[in-house]
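Usage

Read records sequentially. Each one opens with the input sequence:
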Amino acid sequence: SLSSFKQTDNYIVFRFVTNNSLENLGSFKTELLQNTVASIESLSNKPVLTKGVNYTVRCINCSKALNVPIKFQRILPLPSDSSDPNEWFCHAQSSKDNVSLDPKETDIFYTHCYLHINKSNLLNIKGNDKVIVCKFCLNWLGIIYNQNTLRIWLNTVKFLDNNSAISTDSLSDIFHSFKDVFRHSLYNSLK
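and closes with the structure output:
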């Protein structure tokens, strides 16, 4: 996992912790940085799930089902964490109509590393004030974003449909996040 990520004008500082589940990871056999040129297409925030497909969410650690199968009708990218939804309009909104990014039961909102899902969709979880874990193996899955929404890290769950399993790993998520930060930093510096 990546924590304490801070970007200043000249430095990027972070803490990096990973679970060494692959036998070659962390050895001299592993090549983390490849000599490839990433295109903007490969850095885009493409959805990994398909609308209208029945998915079961499973814990990556114990493979137990965390929900009953669900078909997501809206699969949408989340804006950056630094954006304020109340600033998305060209005219002032009334104070009663706060813009909400809480997904409904058939919605899922995603980024490269996490997704927002309606709290009622995941049944086999435990949570305290902030952290949510798998009810079966106590593997950390994410955080309680607000009273209706859970933020689940993509490398802690896998989505199963009839044909395949969709999951990510923490190392590729972190490299993808770095590429995204650098892409946005470069874009903002060229403005």
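Summary fields computed downstream for this record:
- The two ends are 32 Å apart (CA to CA).
- The CA atoms of residues 129 and 144 lie 7 Å apart.
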